[in-house]
Specification:
It is built from 14 helices and 18 strands. The N terminus is likely disordered. It is about 30% helix and about 20% strand.
């Protein structure tokens, strides 16, 4: 059933007001003295947690490296026939009235899919958006100074839409799903000081952690097809061997964010679980589909993920104003048909008239298993773009190199782990192009023999007016008990350090998240 966009907006507005009131009840702020921080425990629970707790008894023989709470069991989807779809254009959010990432970006797509009657097809199941909880965001991000500062209502609806479709997928209501939403998110990293690459929070990463917590999904593959390297998603899962991140994008030497090279393979325990494919500018359908057939699909078949997610950026299109690629709507539809993702989430794409309506229509039809051969841009002619011989050679070399890395991944991990002691450290500089923030980070990973180890991040952001320094501690969902205890001790210790304005705890194993403001001496728990 269709719901007019004015009604959607009104419903979401009232829902946002309602949820904002409920959110205040779900979280608790308390003024703390440093010597009793360790006594603080989770103050409140969501209604979902309360119902789960009431129906479960606590196990005393819980094995290590498993979530503490029993997840829900995903339904069998073999009989599902529909494609789930949510359309949320975020009418009230834009970086500026003339910015490429503004409300008009999806309006032509809206007109196209409604005029073509796609929402009325029996193969399409339309779902309504909802707000994501603060806790969903806290599972992934250290938001500076807090979640409300970085995640506006449109951001929460954008990622909440992804979670709605995830639930529909896991309940077996749909065979696959496409979140046609904005704002995008794949440039947002673990630490969020502001907007970079048009992204504040990472929709795909929040979706992954939600699936892990609620449904126990462990092995997930993310294929990022945006023209810009998905550096935020890569950074978030760089040390996670259970998440395979594959990104093909225009060569970072020629486009933002200047990363995504073949040698970026992952952290010591997750080498070759990051596969980057920097494409020469001007690569057409034939080149991208060659990479898909010879590299991406063989690796996915070998990895055997429980779910395949697509960061569905559409700015590889030949008419996109922010890039220099030569992909077509037919190429995107064919890619989607071959990749067959369980779920796609819209990322970039800024040719609002000449590309997005056609590309989105092609992807929807391909996901629904319908004929997309009639979807063509008015100015596209078959054969108008040809792969240069030199560029084809570049692609062949990249495919050969990354297949070799994948083949030797276990040996690479063993050799790299042997180089480090108890901790692995790396320093990073991150530039926020939208908000003009220069961030300096030191990331430390506990090289635990029993799990992937906890992570700490010391981050300092230089702004034009003032600087902010924070310290974050992150415990993976499958951390061992020892790493969990060490990480929590590290959090409590850092609360007394005067150089940090904010200190964060992200305990995914306990599903508990805290942020401490040294100035106000208040700790917020989610």
């Amino acid at each position: 059933m269709k719901l007019g966009f004015g009604k959607i907006r009104d419903a979401l507005k009232s829902g946002a007001e309602k949820n904002t009131g409920e959110e205040k009840k779900e979280r608790k702020e308390e003024e703390l003295e440093p010597d009793r921080i360790g006594e603080v425990t989770m103050k409140t629970k969501t209604s979902e947690q309360k119902s789960e707790d009431a129906s479960k008894t606590e196990s005393k023989n819980e094995p290590e490296n498993e979530p503490e709470k029993e997840p829900m069991i995903p339904a069998d989807r073999t009989g599902a026939t529909k494609t789930g779809l949510i359309f949320f254009p975020a009418f009230d959010w834009a970086i500026s009235p003339t910015h490429p990432e503004r409300e008009e970006r999806l309006l032509y797509t809206r007109d196209q899919i409604f005029e073509e009657g796609l929402m009325d097809l029996p193969q399409i199941a339309e779902y309504k958006p909802r707000l994501a909880d603060f806790k969903d965001i806290a599972r992934v991000h250290f938001c500076i100074p807090d979640i409300e500062a970085q995640a506006t209502t449109p951001h929460r609806i954008s990622v909440g839409s992804c979670l709605v479709l995830a639930d529909a997928l896991m309940r077996g209501e749909v065979k696959n799903a496409f979140a046609l939403v904005r704002p995008p998110g794949h440039h947002a990293m673990t630490v969020a000081h502001g907007n970079r690459g048009f992204c504040n929070i990472n929709n795909e990463a929040i979706l992954v952690e939600y699936l892990r917590k609620k449904y126990g999904i462990r092995r997930i593959a993310i294929v990022d097809t945006d023209v810009h390297h998905g550096d935020g998603t890569q950074e978030i899962f760089y040390n996670d061997p259970d998440v395979l991140f594959i990104s093909f994008h225009q060569d970072g030497r020629t486009i933002f964010p200047g990363s995504g090279f073949v040698n970026e393979l992952g952290g010591p325990k997750a080498l070759a679980r990051t596969i980057n494919i920097p494409l020469p500018p001007g690569t057409p359908d034939k080149g991208i589909l060659y990479v898909l057939d010879t590299l991406v699909l063989p690796i996915l078949e070998d990895f055997k993920p429980e779910l395949v997610l697509n960061s569905a950026g559409q700015d590889n299109h030949f008419s996109d104003p922010l890039a220099n690629m030569r992909f077509s709507a037919q190429g995107y539809a064919k890619l989607n048909e071959k990749l067959a993702p369980d779920m796609a989430v819209l990322e970039g794409g800024y040719a609002i008239q000449s590309a997005l309506p056609y590309v989105n229509t092609g992807i929807i039809l391909a996901m629904a298993g319908l004929d997309y051969s009639c979807v063509k841009e008015p100015d596209f002619r078959p054969g108008m773009f040809v792969q240069a011989a030199r560029d084809r050679q570049v692609l062949e070399e990249i495919v050969a190199t990354q297949l070799e890395n994948w083949k030797n991944r276990d040996r690479l991990v063993e050799a790299e782990v042997a180089k480090h002691g108890d901790f692995y450290r790396r320093k990073k500089q991150i530039f926020y192009d939208t908000d003009m923030i220069q961030e300096f980070q030191e990331e430390t990973i506990r090289m635990c023999p029993d799990c992937q180890g906890y992570v700490t991040i010391d981050s300092q952001a230089h702004r034009s007016i003032n600087d902010t320094r924070i310290f974050g501690v992150s415990v993976p969902i499958y951390a061992c008990d020892r790493c969990q205890a060490e990480a929590r001790e590290e959090y409590e210790k850092r609360l007394t350090y005067p150089e940090y304005e904010y200190v964060y705890l992200q305990d995914k194993k306990a599903d508990e998240y805290r942020e401490y403001n040294r100035r106000t001496k208040q700790e917020t728990s989610y």
